[in-house]
Amino acid sequence: MRCNFCEDYQDRGPNMKKAGPILQVTGLSKNFGTLRALSNISFELAGGKILGLVGDNGAGRSTLLRILSGGLQPSGGQIYLEGKATRFKSPADAMKKGIAITYQFSQLVDIAKVWENFFMGRELTKRIGPLAFLDVQKMKHLAAGAIAKYGHTFDVEREARELSGGQRRLLAISRAIQANPKIFLMDEPTHGLSKRVINEIFDLLRKTKEASDTSIIITAQWYEQVCDFVDEVIVLRRGEVVGHFDAESADGGQVFKLAMGLTP
Ligand SMILES: Nc1ncnc2c1ncn2[C@@H]1O[C@H](COP(=O)(O)OP(=O)(O)OP(=O)(O)O)[C@@H](O)[C@H]1O
Ligand SMILES: [Mg+2]
Description:
It is a single chain. By secondary structure, the protein is of the alpha/beta class. It has a domain at 4-98 and 181-260: P-loop containing nucleotide triphosphate hydrolases (Rossmann fold). Helix content is 30%, strand content 27%. It is built from eight helices and twelve strands. The strands form three sheets. A six-stranded mixed β-sheet has the order 6-9-10-3-11-12, sandwiched between helices. Strands 2-1-4-5 form a four-stranded antiparallel β-sheet, covered by helices on one side. A two-stranded antiparallel ribbon has the order 7-8. A hairpin with a 2-residue loop joins strand 4 and strand 5. Helix 6 (165-177) runs parallel beside helix 7. The longest helix has 18 residues, at 195-212. The chain binds adenosine-5'-triphosphate (ATP) and magnesium ion. Adenosine-5'-triphosphate binds next to strand 2 and helix 2.
């Protein structure tokens, strides 16, 4: 089943601002030994659009995002980034190509401070004569500014383990989007958070999207967790696409039944 959005997009012809989808996935599969985690996954993502990936436990959402961010290699199929066949050799390679991800389970280092987590792996340095030093003041200042930009002020000197679940998620998200990605992948960012924090995260992401035309893929177990946020939704079940709708035509009850394998 194809969504109306994708068909409209393809029909807009050569004069449209963007010539094609930013991301295209065709026939993607992933086996773990004899277990088929993903089977023949195909979809397109247009610039500045938000795609939801919904499915029950083990449906393959995290596996798909890990392939799209270089953490896993597919067993088959193809990925096109801005129309060009692409392989992400590693997370660093995917990041270089404009893909950022926040994982289902926090990747923050608990005993590192907020600013250290924010710049982990891309620390800023300054030169004094022939020597290079970490530019701690600048990193603290930039981390505080990035977090404050989204209406939050938590002390960047605090260790990550002292943050609440929502603050951890906001830190991970603001760290990822600081790199100004073309595509931002988020694995279950709403899980275990209150409606208020979820709305804050969605507001933050809308601002980012408006400012930079970033495309987003967000996973959730239930469509209701993301229905106010996405432009379209793909339903995964046991590694297969069992539904693909634009948000206007998606029906929560039908998505649920497809995700659970119940007869409509
Ligand atoms: N590294 C791995 N080795 C072996 N099997 C794996 C591995 N990662 C995932 N799987 C299997 O692949 C399938 C899809 O898992 P995945 O984590 O992608 O699902 P999911 O939709 O993210 O579910 P949830 O987040 O609710 O657990 C599951 O059957 C899982 O057991
Ligand atoms: Mg998962």
